[in-house]
Design a protein that fits this description.
Blueprint lengths: L5 H7 L5 H13 L8 H41 L10 H14 L8 E5 L4 E6 L4 E6 H8 L5 E5 L3 H13 L3 E2 L25
Parallel strand pairs: 1-4, 3-5
Antiparallel strand pairs: 1-2, 2-3
């Protein structure tokens, strides 16, 4: 009379002590016990929740991808030599830049460290937000050579920087491009630009 195997029966009665399950099993084999059908509605209610979560994850990934595409357009317009910006798109570009500035909020000069070694590249790390950029010495010296509120760390070996880079890659916190000055990287360009506390 029994249609389930012992293993299937035990699976259907998870959370019940083994002694009770064996008593129910003996009753089931004789035909004095039927399986509870209350489990079926629970499974039905769980499936739509999982689909909703998957749809939310997919829509979030799509939004992230769309932002990356727009950011690449903005970045190429800002850093391509000789590129002309269409003035009709200026407001759109400004809004895009503000959106990306809001994605990675950084207060003025909070937690920035520049890691340099004997090579021509370095790592610009925001310790308060735990992400980093790959930058070149030339970029740094051209735009921020006298910048204040940035801690400088110099190392004798390139291997130290490579290990740091690998750590950020593993954590998926490394951005392999220059930060946008004034949007993602906001620091005073000299000590004279540091805002003074006012005694109101």
């Amino acid at each position: 009379m029994a249609t389930l195997t012992w293993n299937e029966f035990r699976k259907a009665h998870k959370g019940i002590p083994l002694s009770e399950t064996t008593k129910l099993w003996s009753d089931y084999k004789v035909g004095n016990y039927t399986l509870p059908t209350e489990d079926v509605p629970e499974e039905v209610t769980e499936e739509p929740v999982e689909e909703t979560v998957e749809e939310t994850v997919e829509s979030t990934e799509d939004a992230k991808y769309a932002l990356k595409v727009k950011y690449n357009e903005l970045y190429s317009l800002c850093y391509q030599p000789g590129a002309e910006i269409d003035t009709s798109k200026a407001s759109e570009l400004k809004k895009m830049a503000e959106d990306f500035g809001n994605l990675m909020p950084s207060k003025l000069g909070v937690g920035w460290t520049l890691w340099l070694g004997p090579c021509q590249w370095g790592i610009l790390e925001n310790q308060s937000q735990n992400y980093a950029y790959i930058v070149s010495r030339r970029w740094w010296n051209t735009l921020f050579s006298g910048a204040a509120l940035v801690e400088m760390q110099l190392h004798d070996e390139e291997e130290t920087l490579l290990k740091m880079k690998e750590r950020f890659v593993r954590q998926k916190r490394l951005i392999k491009r220059y930060p946008l000055p004034g949007i993602e990287f906001i620091v005073p360009k000299s000590k004279l630009e540091i805002p003074l506390a006012r005694g109101d």
